[in-house]
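Morning!

This is the sequence you dropped in the shared folder:
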Amino acid sequence: MKTKDNVLSFAMNGLANSIARLTENGELRTTAVPGLSLYRKTEPSEPLTGMYEPSVCLIAQGAKRVLLGDDTYVYDENHYLLSGLHLPVIAQVIEASQEKPYLGLRLTFDYSDISHLMADSQLPPPRTQKTDRGMATGELTVPLLNAFQRIVDLLDQKQDIPILSPVIQREIFYRLLVGEQGAILRRLAVTGTQSQQVARAVLWLKANFSQPLRVDELSEMANMGKSTFHHHFRSMTALSPLQYQKQLRLQEARRLMLTEHIDAASAAFQVGYESPSQFSREYSRLYGAPPVRDIMTLRQQSTSVSG
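The structure's back. Tokens below.
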């Protein structure tokens, strides 16, 4: 007689085999299924800064650590990671090898899809809310895992994607909404909740990070008092609005220097810094080295990998 753990393990092995086959030619594959990306890594990675968008991330083999502010999230074959809004993080693959590579996937989502599902369905009540954060891990279930397997299987049946992908994604969203972290999605999908209002301010800040930060204007946008907004923003993102803006600026400056070969001072001004020395200090604090040295190291690493 099969136990629940055995069924989950069998299903996970099947998903790992599918991702391994579909990522044979590289570490990242963006797919024909809207919002679905597949990942492979054959060795643990260095901690990397980046932005997690609204998405659910699943690992079929290996493990990953994600740092959000002072919070740490570790997920693996038994847990998924849910990011409810755009969040600047430091992520690191911590279990991977040539013999047993890290194999994962990410499915991004639009809250309009979540809202429509909630409006059209008689959803069971959510489980008890465990966190105010916009990020959380949850235990994988067999029905959720099976739904992910079916959406990955569509990559071998591309003619079916336009019809079946929305149906399977709807099932995935349903499984998440009624799962242990469903309260996060519900709060962010319902218009007028404080979580949804903070998420709207986050989107504005993400699009306008180079402008001077005015928390008064952000709190008005969220229809909250300044102190209330500040409290809810930090509760959801683990960062203050200023810290959030700073990470966005530094990430964009790093991208400009690395990919567009812009010098440090020009990158600093372009992302909104008025003082190159302040930029250099804050950059060193986040990335562990001054801008010029950091970019030089990244280029050397890229050359050695490509060679």
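Headline: Residues 194-239 form one domain.

More detail when I'm at my desk.
O.
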